[in-house]
Amino acid sequence: MNDLLLRAARGEHTERPPVWLMRQAGRHLPEYRELRAEYSFREAITTPDVAAEITRQPWERYRPDGLVIFSDILCALEPLGVDYRIESGVGPVIDEPVEAPADVPSSYADVPETLSYVGELLALLDDQVGDEVPLIGFAGGPFTLASYLVAGGSTRGHRPIRRFRQEHPDAFEALLSVLADVVRDHLRYQIEAGADVVQLFDTYAGVLPPADYERFLVPLHREILAGLDAPSIVFVRGMGGRLDQLVATGADVVGLDWTVDMAAAREGLGDVAVQGNLDPSTLYADSAVVRERTREVIEAAGPAGHVLNLGHGVPKDAPIDGVAAFVEAAKSIER
Q1: Is residue 72 flagged as an active site residue?
Q2: What is the pLDDT of residues 25-67, one digit of tens each?
Q3: Collapsing DSSP states into helix, strand and coil, what is residue 4?
Q4: Domain limits for position 301
Q5: Tally of domains within the chain
Q6: How far is CA 14 from CA 10, 169, 265, 298, 302, in A?
Q7: pLDDT grade, residue 89 (50/70/90)?
């Protein structure tokens, strides 16, 4: 199996940087849109053979060095008895959000049983491509999940969860705690089912003030990631001035969004492995520009402990030529 990703996650020098594509990596592909026309989003992620086919589409196009499963962070809400749907043009919708302390769930169902379709997906992929490429599992972080759960969907500035934190501080902590427990079990289940690497997406947690992030999330992130039998990556957007808080989570790899200067981050973090961080909008540029900008990121990151990725997810309308140029730039490096 191609082990570039695993070696880079351990901080090792690699002959070229491993490259993969974050977050529903194939949604910009015409073959994805064609298949999705037959299924709702929930149907697609909960039907293992369909999810496996969607997962493989970027592999068949680009041959990245890691293959992220086709799933969604909100599936971690299912063991809590929370129902959700994805509406086109709207995003996630939760009809019964957490509005008061009494709404905070205190227990959850067995994760492997409730999310068995995720395990079945990983087993299928392990049979199909597991000998060729590492499989990447993931889960949403507790604050990001709480933001959706309190607001009932997507919000600007995440004001509902920030208000909930102020009005109901004990309930806020209880909500984060139970979500962290589910996420921990979810990541462990994915590893048991065949994931070689896992990423914790607490994308929205960067809206918290540094002191709140230190108090509420660093301990929970450490708890989630401790003792995993696979390399772990943590990703939080908007943490450029406090990367030390991401290091404190204990993750093997710190994900950097595109607002972070790669060279400065490497100098500040020392030997800590990093992931990132090309601006996703660069993919719309001419292919020569994409390759140039990608090589600049690679050069700034250096030869040890760097996993090449975008600074966030692949845009759903990203041009195939741009994505291909990004992947090819990594593969053109010879050290």
Answers
A1: yes
A2: 889 999 999 999 999 999 999 999 999 999 999 999 999 999 9
A3: helix
A4: 4-331
A5: 1
A6: 10, 46, 19, 12, 10
A7: confident
Would residue 27 show up in a list of annotated catalytic residues for this protein? yes
Domain holding 163: CATH number? 3.20.20.210
pTM, two decimal places: 0.96
Q: Which of 23, 165, 188, 291 is catalytic?
A: 23
Catalytic residue among 16, 61, 62, 72: 72
> What pLDDT does 311 receive?
97
134-188 pLDDT, tens digit each: 999 999 999 999 999 999 999 988 999 999 999 999 999 999 999 999 999 999 9
| CA–CA distance, 90 with 244 (Å, rounded to integer) | 35
- Length in residues, the chain: 335
- Which sign does the torsion angle of CA 285, 291, 296, 297 carry? positive
Catalytic residue among 32, 148, 204, 213: 148
Residue 23 among the catalytic residues: yes
Catalytic residue (choose from 10, 36, 42, 63): 36
